[in-house]
Amino acid sequence: MLVGEAEHWWRGTHHMLTARGVVVDWECFRRMFLEKYFPESVRHAKEVEFMQLHQGEMTVSEYAMRFEHLARFYSQGIAEAWKCRKFAKGLKYELKRVMVPMAITEFLALVEKAKVVERLEGGNRVVPQPQQGGPVIRQPSGAAGGGRQGGGATLRCYGCVGHHFVRDCPHTESWCFKCHQMGHESTNCPTRSRPERIDAQRGDTQRGDRPTTAGRVLTLTGAEASTSSDLVKGKGRAAGKDVMILFDSGASHSFISYDWLSANRILIDCANRRLIFPQVEEELLISAGQAESLLRDGAECCFLLAALNVETERVIAEIDVVRDFAEVFPDEVPGLPPVREMEFSIDLVPGAGPVSVAPYRMAPAELVELKGQLEDLLEKQLVRPSVSSWGAPVLLVKKKDGGSRLCVDYRQLNKLTIKNKYPLPWIDDLMDQLRGASVFSKIDLRSSYHQIRVKEGDIPKTAFRTRYGHYEYGVMPFGVTNTPVVFMDYMNRIFRPFLDKFVVVFIDDILIYSRTREEHGEHLRVVLEILKAKQLYAKLSKCEFWLDEVKFLGHVISAEWIAVDPAKVESVL
Predict the structure, then answer these.
(1) CATH 3.10.10.10 in the chain, residues?
(2) pTM assigned to the model
(3) Run of H or E including 68
């Protein structure tokens, strides 16, 4: 049973889903509930915590409980063997060196054996005795339990490697983990006083179970380094002289995966212990930023060519028919649109209340751009200061021409808005109407959504917050749900007598098509007269007139064929 805030959320969500015709079953509830209270970001954080989990100061029991808890959030399927390897590698070093070689593939058996080893390890810790000057091994109490545990795996004593538990080992002397000799511990090992040297023939360092590198680095000579095969070294220049450089990765071992070797086509010369890198012969395409970085690093550059696509400015006086409607193609939208036969409304689900989100942080350059765009919107009366309890954050989005577009993040408002069921037309159905046409013109409306006013009672819901104040839209803003279908509805109303005769409309894109050039002049004039009468404006730089072939809605259309635009296909591939 949901109570409190969760109950309030589910009532609103349930009403919204049923209003949209969604069947609310258990799977639907589960999906919506997880999106609300257990989003993907939290699940990802749990996965990261699981992959980085180590025993640390926890006991084996605590580590196993935490491991099982986090494993539930791992999105990939977990095989039993992989689960065992992951658990064993996360154990403390003293336990891992015993458990990993066993290669146990049953998780419960692995945990139980790890608990046994943990108890044995705890019972054989060295307890300092200052008055005697030496360590004493504390023997655990209890009877000997034999050499096997449930599950059939044989435990070996890691003191003398016999087939018995450490607590039953007859050798009571201390055992060195470094030189594997009895009678002393690794901290007092006499080999620690002898510096480790590199065997130039084998390339192998004599070392104990735990890797140590300090001794090797301190005693390494130039001659030894030049003949060693297990060091990463290279050539460089210092003070104008050629020197050999040793690269210290900070790790005891370095590994190269087979995937990386195959992806880069690296060959392994086992006899000479070398990696052979192939000669790259194909040309590589780099970005301007990469070229700048390479030049700063001293790379040689023979030639740089910047290709520019220069577009000539269109002159409206040179276009037949269009020259008579210059007022339809202004450089900017004059201001607040006229009152039209329809307005944009925002209908909320029952029980929905105002939502306010803090403004996003912006860089200083973005703040300058934001302030300029706000002043422009205020001057055109498209926005006005607001005292609404609603408030959405804003952000700037880069445009193709390098400028920035002011966008309001209306996602929270959209979640509470009842969706408009007005259908958008199928593009394939629109294409069917163009058969037989040979002359085309395309008109792209300027700031189309801003040419319809918002219903006065719904204006406060469009409010947005910035560093420079609280504002609300008087015209239909970008980013609010239902805006495309509302504008589509309006365009269909004003062009209804001519739809599927010589006009195709898709939201703010208008295509005029005709069989002959004489017909096309008449059709183009009818469309422009409607736009002029309704005070709808177009952007001349994005319009095309009197074409034999036109690109429209991802298709290339001509008298002979209608095909998918190859440029769109190439961008997908």
Answers:
(1) 316-572
(2) 0.45
(3) helix 60-71
